[in-house]
Amino acid sequence: MHHSALMPRYPVPALNVALTEGGRFVLGAQPGEKFDLLVFYRGLHCPICAKYLLELERLAPEFAARGVQVVAISSDDEDRAGQMAAKVGATGLKFAYGLSLRAAREWGLYISTSRGKTSIGIDEPALFSEPGVFIVRPDGTLYYSAVQTMPFARPQFQDLLGAIDFAISKDYPARGEFTGEV
Description:
This protein is α+β, with helices and mostly antiparallel strands. About 25% of the residues lie in helices and about 20% in strands. It contains four helices and nine strands; from the N terminus they run βββαβαβαββββα. The strands form two sheets. Strands 2-1-5-4-3-8-9 form a seven-stranded mixed beta sheet. The chain has a two-stranded antiparallel ribbon with strand order 6-7. A hairpin with a 5-residue loop joins strand 8 and strand 9. The longest helix is centred in the N-terminal third of the chain and has 19 residues. The chain is globular.
């Protein structure tokens, strides 16, 4: 199997997922003024994800103030996604669910197999995607990405806020765009 990364300044894959609050999140239909921040997480079974998303929920107003729409996305079903949204007390953070594993792979996410119950006693799904964080411009092109094979050592949201401030104030372009021979 060949694993390929998305390219900065190029269009990202389509994304159309259900929201726990009702309706759907369709990437590009109503983009954030400056960016969409898409945080793909492993699912309800992951205690590290819950801690990570608690921090994102805490900072959601800061992202909103900068014109950044924030969405947490998983392959979980509606019930599990709703439980995660409740666990983090989601008010500023949208939770999307039902991401197909095919779509996860199109986004360059890694897929893992179940190892049974996690440390918090919740069964892992048979297959699920590992984390990824993407910042997408309103025109649907990739600005930033971080894709991981493990739930550990993820990009910190406070750091991303600083990066977004810099990007906006300096009109800093997406980097990593070179596709020629090396």
